Amino acid sequence: MADVNKKGHVLNAALLSVGLGVVLAAPTALTAVEALAVAETVAKLSVPIVLGALFPDVDTAFGKHRKTLHNLFVLGVVAAFPVVFDNLQFVWIGIATHYLLDVVGSRRGIALFYPLTSQEWGLPSGVTTSSKYADLVTVVVTGLEVAALAAVHIYVIPLGETASVVNTLLA
Ligand SMILES: [Zn+2]
How far apart are CA 38 and CA 103, in angstroms? Predict the structure, then answer.
């Protein structure tokens, strides 16, 4: 089965949580209290991001794999939760990183616009799960994600405050 496996998705999500926790909480020099704040942020991010990263492959059991829970509408609904219900913060990051890893890191693409179309989208950069490069691709993709999220966090919007920013815009 040419697919990014659970191990890959958990590795990706766990590393992303650590990287993002450092990005969000780490100042230039760490005191013990600040180091604790980094660890606390990593812990706060890791469970929701790992759970989010595991969620899309539930469609191996319910619906059509790489379609039913691998589309932008599912991502949109989960991303809206913190804004509407003030819960599930950060779960969307796990889902988004799962999609990205499937698109960039695996041979088969995903149906981003399902159920509008079953067309699967992927990049030729993908490798199979059995490839010796599978873990390397996962780590490289994660590194690029942390860099991109750091840029967004530093230059555009404080991640995790998306809900309050959206509410301010709507007010
Ligand atoms: Zn998947």
Answer: 30
* Total structural domains within the chain: 1
Tell me the backbone φ, ψ of residue 106, rounded to 5 degrees: -125, 160
* Domain coverage including residue 45: 6-170
Q: What are 26-76's pLDDT values in tens digits? A: 666 677 777 788 888 889 999 999 999 999 999 999 999 999 999 999 999
Do the Cβ atoms of 149 and 159 come closer than 8 Å? yes
Assess if residue 64 is contained within a domain: yes
Residues around ion ligand 1, judged by CB within 5 A, are 56-57, 102
Task: Identify whether 90 is part of a domain.
Answer: yes
Indicate whether 98 belongs to any domain. Answer: yes
Say what percent of the chain tops pLDDT 90: 51
pTM, two decimal places = 0.81
1 occurs within a structural domain: no
Cα 103 to ligand 1 centre (Å): 9
Residue-wise pLDDT tens digits, 29-42: 677 777 788 888 88
Task: Give one word for 86, left, alpha or beta, with left for phi > 0 and alpha for psi -120 to 50.
Answer: left
